[in-house]
Amino acid sequence: MRIPIYFIAALSLIFGVSVQAEPTFANLAVLFAKGYFKEHVPQDAPLEDCVEFLNRQGVYFSMFDLIDSSVKVTQEDFAKVIGQSTLLFLGEAEMEKGCVKRPDEIVTWVDYCLLNDVDLRTLWSGFLKRTENRSLPEVKKFFGGTL
What we know:
- With 147 residues, the protein is an all-alpha fold.
- It has one domain.
- It is built from 8 helices and 2 strands; from the N terminus they run αααααββααα.
- The chain has a two-stranded antiparallel sheet with strand order 1-2.
- Helix 2 (25-35) crosses helix 3 (47-57) and helix 5 packs across helix 6.
- The protein is globular and about 45 Å long.
């Protein structure tokens, strides 16, 4: 069964098709902390500091999702981080068990983004593009350079 996998990989290399990395929660945490919260998070901050800052603000990242690089970020996960951050910036965030709570009248975080004119598609595409080749340096460093 390994021969077809090697064959597909070889064809990808020959024809210049790149294998894209899947977006991880660790990459998302670093990009959001250093992007949206750049006034509060130094650009040289390691992954741990980024996650700690976001969790203190109520934009929660599970350690299980961060440590397991096979757990991939979905668009709903992405929308949750954007929605929570937006509520924080607007000063409208309500906390529940240490996390920014989704407004009661909203069914999903994607709905929240759509109803509040957040261009989720463009932001998601930018996130995928930023993480398409490899993990961010902070994430690689955290995992000992193995990603």
